[in-house]
């Protein structure tokens, strides 16, 4: 989880390995204190399972050094995610039922 990131990002190597059919992109991404990097593509409605929770998430496919996937603030807000940093856990709301996922 990255509460400083707006969107969701997936490492290009993992997208290729998982057979995710992303649409080729032309944009670039600039983060604080780094060079801009190309956005290799975008995939909409990727089925993701986190513990017992599952849902569809949109991802921008990029090259990253430090994380294979980043779920940004748009995901956290849309899914009503509760963060529990003291236990490294998130709680996801699915149809009124919360599912805890240890990260």
TrEMBL record:
Gene3D superfamilies per record: Acid Proteases
SUPFAM superfamilies referenced in this protein's UniProt entry, alphabetically: Acid proteases (SSF50630)
InterPro entries from the UniProt entry: Peptidase_aspartic_dom_sf (IPR021109)
Full protein name: Uncharacterized protein
Organism encoding this protein: Linum trigynum
């Amino acid at each position: 989880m990255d509460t400083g990131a707006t969107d969701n990002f997936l490492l290009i190597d993992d997208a290729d390995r998982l057979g995710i059919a992303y649409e080729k992109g032309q944009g670039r991404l600039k983060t604080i204190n780094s060079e801009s990097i190309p956005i290799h593509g975008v995939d909409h409605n990727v089925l993701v399972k986190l513990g017992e929770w599952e849902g569809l998430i949109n991802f921008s496919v990029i090259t990253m050094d430090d994380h294979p996937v980043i779920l940004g603030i748009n995901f956290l807000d849309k899914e009503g995610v509760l963060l529990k940093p003291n236990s490294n856990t998130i709680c996801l709301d699915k149809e009124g039922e919360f599912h805890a996922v240890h990260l």
